[in-house]
Write a structure and sequence with these properties.
Layout: H1 15-34, H2 36-43, H3 48-57, H4 61-73, H5 81-105, E1 107-110, E2 119-122, E3 125-127, E4 132-134, E5 137-139, H6 142-168
Antiparallel strand pairs: 1-2, 2-5, 3-4
Helix pairs in contact: 1-5, 1-6, 2-3, 2-4, 4-5, 5-6
């Protein structure tokens, strides 16, 4: 008889792989999101300290990305059109990764003692025209892990692109 892998109801061992990748996403996300400070400083034509205050005052990723986009879209934008286009593209790419990150950070993880697949249960209300959706479930599978791995690669590319924009257009570092 094989020894049990953990207490009854414990997550399967492969769940640790997901948790590790989710942790890596959070680490990479935090580092990449903080680079928005440099874009804010350059686009608002201010110093880094003021940009840090703006960044920290906005308490959501969405608000920070909206600020960057709005600064890039304004008629008095201090950077050339090709820089604006790159910044807007970066912001759009970050929003896509943010959706995946939010999915895994704002859910419950469900598993059972009988060895069924690990599932995520969304902790938000989806308010539709004629109904509500609560607790939408999804299975954590190989495709989920592939999505996390792709998001990590994308965050690395975003980080590199933001630093390139900052350097090329002389934004405050």
């Amino acid at each position: 008889m094989a020894a049990p892998e953990g207490p009854p109801g414990a997550p399967p061992p492969e769940f640790d792989t997901f948790l590790m990748q989710i942790g890596r996403i959070n680490y990479a996300w935090t580092n990449t999101e903080s680079l928005l400070i440099h874009l804010i400083a350059g686009l608002a034509q201010t110093d880094k300290e003021t940009a840090v205050i703006l960044h920290l005052t906005l308490n959501t990723t969405r608000a920070r990305l909206d600020l960057v986009e709005r600064l890039a879209k304004r008629s008095a934008c201090p950077v050339p059109p090709e820089a604006r286009a790159r910044i807007l593209k970066v912001a759009g790419r970050m929003k896509k990764v943010s959706g995946l990150r939010n999915h895994y950070n704002h859910c419950l993880y469900a598993f059972d003692a009988s060895g069924g697949p690990v599932r995520t249960i969304q902790m938000r209300i989806a308010d539709r025209k004629t109904s509500l959706r609560i607790g939408e479930e999804a299975v954590l599978d190989r495709a989920s892990l592939d999505d996390l791995n792709a998001a990590l690669v994308e965050l690395g590319a975003l980080n590199t692109e933001i630093w390139a924009i900052v350097a090329q257009y002389g934004m405050p570092v």
